[in-house]
Amino acid sequence: MIKAIVYNSETGFTKEYAKMLSERLNVSYYTLEEAKKELNKQDEIVYLGWICAGAIKGLNKVRNRYKVKCYGAVGAFPKEDNYIESLIKSNGLENDKLFYLRGGINFKKLKGYKKLIVKIVGRVLEKNNKGKEGSEELIKIFNEGASFVDSKNLDEMIDYIKK
Ligand SMILES: Cc1cc2nc3c(=O)[nH]c(=O)nc-3n(C[C@H](O)[C@H](O)[C@H](O)COP(=O)(O)O)c2cc1C
C-alpha cells in the first residue's frame, strides 16, 4: 500500500498532479524535504518529478531511500512513445515503471537562467520547424506558456497503483 506521494516541482505543475493524485488515492503528498521528516526509509511511495533537460529532478534522492511503486515525469513536450523511451533510458529506469504526465510552461514562475533556457528552446524550435505542419502548437507553448495538467492524465497511473 502506498504511504504517500513525494514530489519535486519548480513552477507548480508537478505539485498540481501530486495534489490531484493525493485526493484520488486518499494519501498525503510531500515535497522531498517534508518526506524526510514524515516518512521512514523504505516506505512505499509514488514519486513525481519535473523534467529538466531530460533529467527527472530529485530522482536520486528517492530511488534508494524509499520503495518507489512508480515514477511520474512531468514535462512540457507532447506524450509520445519515443520520448518516454528516451526518458526511461536517460534516467536509468529500465527496471522501473514510468508514466509521463504533461505539465506545461509557466513564464510567471520561471526565473533566471531557467527562464532563459526555455526562451532559447522556443527560438530553436521556431528556427528548426518553420513551416512544418503540427509544430505551431509546440512553438507557441515555448514562447507564451501553457498548461496541459488534467486529472485524466493520471488515470493510467492510478490503474497501475490500484491493481
Ligand atoms: C531549464 C528547463 C529545462 C526543461 N527541460 C525539459 C525537457 O527536457 N523535457 C520536457 O518535457 N520539459 C522540459 N522542461 C519543461 C518542464 O519540465 C515543464 O515546465 C514542467 O511542467 C515543469 O514542472 P513544474 O511546474 O512542476 O516545475 C524544461 C523546463 C526548464 C525550465
**Main CATH class of the largest domain:** Alpha Beta
Based on the structure given, which CATH architecture of the largest domain is correct? 3-Layer(aba) Sandwich
Ligand types: flavin mononucleotide
Name the shape in a single word. Answer: globular
Helix content: 40-55%
CATH superfamily of the largest domain: Flavodoxin domain
Over all CA atoms, what is the radius of gyration? Answer: 16 Å
End-to-end distance: 11 Å
Q: How many alpha or pi helices?
A: 7
Give the total of domains.
2
Strand composition percent: 15-25%
Mean pLDDT: 96
Ranges where pLDDT stays below 50 over 5 or more residues in a row are: none
CATH topology of the largest domain: Rossmann fold
The string of secondary-structure elements, in order, is EHEHEEHEHEEHHEH
Q: What can be said about this structure in brief?
A:
Helix content is 42%, strand content 23%.
Spell out the key features of this protein:
alpha/beta; six-stranded mixed sheet; 163 residues; 7 helices; 42% helix; Rossmann fold; 8 strands; two-stranded antiparallel ribbon; binds flavin mononucleotide
